[in-house]
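User: Can you help me understand a structure? I only have the sequence.
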Amino acid sequence: MENKVEYILGLDISTSVIGMSLFKHENNVLDIVLSESLELKRKDINKLKGLEALLLKSKIFEDKLIQYNAIIQMTYKSVISRVIIETPLVASNNILTVGVLMRFSGIITSIVYNTLNVVPEEISSYDARCFGFPQLMEVTVYNKKGEKRDIKDIKRDLKNGKITLFGGFPFGIDKKNVIFDLLLERYPNINVLYNKSGELKRENFDSTDSMVCVFARLNVEKCGEKPTLVSHEIFPDRIEYKTQWNNIIYDHTITF
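Assistant: Let's start by predicting it. Here is the structure, written out as tokens:
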């Protein structure tokens, strides 16, 4: 059987930073080649508004995309054959902000197609996290006040097989930090940015989000079924339960 090698680009798009990550996919092994958070803020662009600002920002991305593809051509004698984009998460109630983001996402998608002759694939933020790290699908332990839920409610969820993304973490947890830590375990050599105080820069999360959407998309292709709760056992001081995805078992514990 011929050994298939493909180079996959992941993108996490916003109008201020674009997370980019490039992978080599061979024999079901996904190795990171490059990852970065592409800064789109510049003094000359910040003075502009509207479509002109978006077009100048998109030119920064286009130049970087050409550079990425040139690296693959020169170093690996290949090309970027797939692009996975995390669907922009529209969290604003401001219709103008939403419109700008969607317009910019459309421009970036067009640049990808025109530059690489590749039709980008999309994955939602939820599915990226769910399929990227299936172990994060757990029974909800805490309520919105940060207190542990009544044991009766937890037992009911166990009986009904109800699990949710980040269910084992306190409500309000910084989900991007959780994803970043898990990703760093998988790829310990990725470039990490710190500010002058030694704290993680938020830009790290743009590049890591772009990484997650790639291997999550590949996981969807392996098994499109979401993780399920398969068994549980109740002890006097804890509950132990198992979830499963693609024949992989994850062990979880809830202490009283």
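Now, to help you interpret it: Helices lie at 43-46, 50-76, 95-116, 125-132, 151-160, 175-186, 203-222. Residues 129-198+224-256 form one domain. Let me know which part you'd like to focus on.
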